[in-house]
Amino acid sequence: MINKFFSRLGVFFLCLLSLIPLRVLYFVADVLYILLYRVFRYRRKVVRENLSLAFPEKTQTEIASIEKRFFRYLAELIVEIVKMNSISKEEVLKRFVFKNKEQVQAYLERGESILICSAHYGNWEWGTLGIGLNFKAAHYPIYKPLSNPVFDNWFKTVRSRFGNKLIAMRQTFRAIQESKNTSTMFSFGNDQAPSTGESNYWTTFLHQQTAVQLGIEKIAKKTGQPIFYFKINYVKRGYYTVDCIPLCLHPEQTAEFEITELHTRFLEDMINKEPAYWLWSHKRWKHKRAS
């Protein structure tokens, strides 16, 4: 009961913060960066270990530079997620611009469906809102529910703005079957570590043996729906573009694990070019492959 009260109090505080203009929230982000990085040293050991494993060729000075840029961006990302509760459609359309979307729109205008592949890179949360505003089809973001029901409900509410229909990971196949007669967009964040017992594929990713989810490959092969990678590009503070890149237009013609390798290599290339915008603060390689 006490935990629920404090959770609701936390959500109320987040809603109040969301009403503050972004230009002021970015000042909060500057302070938050100092607190996260220098005062509380939030997950600095985890971030440093992940970066050192991913970039063995870089010096410790280079690793430290990426680490600082990541924490600066993490602070920005936090206030941008808070702002989702009250951000207007006009603000999202101005700050999150989709490029090369004609091919996606062509599929949807013919009444067909597509699958969207992305990752926890850049502001993927604003990306969810942007998809709902930019495309005329039912958009189903696939998400992993939070353990705290109060915060889970708040996140579902803010993510569902502008027409999005959130689907828990375990309900994906059912939702696809139920919506098979309509034009849909199911979006997957394919850099989440598979749960224990979940179907996965092992590959080398950023020099590490890594388990990758097979969900999008299985669904693409079963439905024949084309896959587009929505690549988020950080332009400047508070502004992004998204490239809608055809990753696999004929999944039924691919070999086993080919699609999984395609999106894994795509993300790896993104991270190698601009590493600061991936979510390094999670224990990326906590699962080890059975020998």
TrEMBL record:
GO molecular-function terms, A-Z: acyltransferase activity
Signal peptide range: none
Name of this chain's protein: KDO2-lipid IV(A) lauroyltransferase
Pfam families: Lip_A_acyltrans
Gene Ontology biological process terms in this record: glycolipid biosynthetic process
Bilayer-spanning residue ranges: 6-36
GO cellular component: plasma membrane
Coarse class of the protein's main subcellular location: membrane
Cellular compartment(s): Cell inner membrane
Keywords associated with the record: Acyltransferase, Cell inner membrane, Cell membrane, Membrane, Transferase, Transmembrane, Transmembrane helix
